[in-house]
Prior knowledge:
The chain is globular, with a radius of gyration of 19 Å. The chain has one helix at residues 30-33; strands at 22-28, 38-55, 72-78, 95-98, 109-113, 131-132, 146-148, 154-156, 161-162, 166-177, 188-194. It has a domain at 24-116 and 162-194: Jelly Rolls. 2% of the residues lie in helices and 36% in strands. By secondary structure, the chain is mainly β.
Amino acid sequence: MPxxxxxxxxxxxxxGSRTRVNRIVFEYDAADLAGQTQITAAIQMNGxxxxxxxxxxxxxxxxxxxxxxxxxxxxxxxxxxxxxxxxPINYCNPITELDFTNKSGGRGFYQFQxxxxxxxxxxxxxxxxxxxxxxxxxxxxxATPKIGDPSxxxxxxxxxxxxxxxxxxxxxxxxxTSTAWAADTGKIRLTILYS
Length: 195
């Protein structure tokens, strides 16, 4: 499962006058996927992810019916260390109910992006595919963290926040499905645009 030739790396130099955009193109082939329910691409990155394209148009699951068209997920995780309790640290909320079957007739192509600073919830808001949740306490009725407004009234941070896209070090792109990939599955291509 290599990073393939479509990738573009603009080098390590620092440029004050322009934005550098890089593209990593990663392919999971049949040998990587067949019989698996989870696969991870570990990629060294330092920057801000802006777009993620996930091409599952020729992927095939062992049981490949309409029932399995919502069995996939994508998580973007810190690959250098996890939570002290052992769970992975997600850079953004995992995306669930992805279609890893080939039932779509070639339409299995997903595009996700960051929209830092956009409003969420309420009138005129935008939905966010790449967002973060702040976390909650372990109480039987979990509480969310709070922050003071200008008059120091404590207001809960109880909505998802737009993800900045910032990553550093080893970044794990984990695909998971509750139904294993078929032996004759086609490839899955993951493209990451970042600066």
